[in-house]
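Recap from last week: sequence in, structure out.
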Amino acid sequence: MRLNTAYEGALGDYFAESATDGPYNAHTDRPAMFALAGDVTGLRALDVGCGAGHYIAELRARGAAEVVGVEGSATLMRHARERVGSDAAVTLHQHDLEEPLEFLSDDSFDLAVAALVHHHLEDREQLLAELHRVLRPGGTLLLSTVHPTADWVWHGGSYFDEDRVETRFGTSGFTNSHRRMTMQTFLGELLDAGFALERLVEPRAAESARRVDEARYLKTLQTPFFVAVRMRND
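Predicted structure tokens:
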């Protein structure tokens, strides 16, 4: 039986708002991922787990020629549609990422983005194989996930545990489920899928996070919350 980890209903609405200007999504993950991306002008990009469309909007603002977004949550898809509006260069698909991306053609994207969705999935190997398939040779995958050390700090046990855990969204009362993994597992699965590592970063919040939530900004300077990589499709 497949797990449904899509952020629906009130959780989806909360996440959409939080991701807009929250210290972690807006001021830690996105700056790091776009620093890894470099110049995206003219690229055809895929955003898997596109959430409320924040990456799509920024990709277009930075000059991406076309962006395709894929998201499992109907709630977040609604927010994404509102965010991108009538932009004819954006196509959105509601689709379970535990299933193959059969509606996307081989070698059809220059860039794929998977921001903080990887750790929610059970069939990660399938998704990575699909991203390898739809990216052109030499194309780029940008992927971020929860840092293995953060999971160890938050959930205890052995660093080598790869169980499924529940993490709270701050003081909101909401939780989300994800599978923790070691750095060896994380990188090993990417390499096994046919990607080559170009760069790895352990993002700390940008200074702009201080005005949003100084306490959480300071936490990111002490604990590595996320890890982000730039991979080449070999």
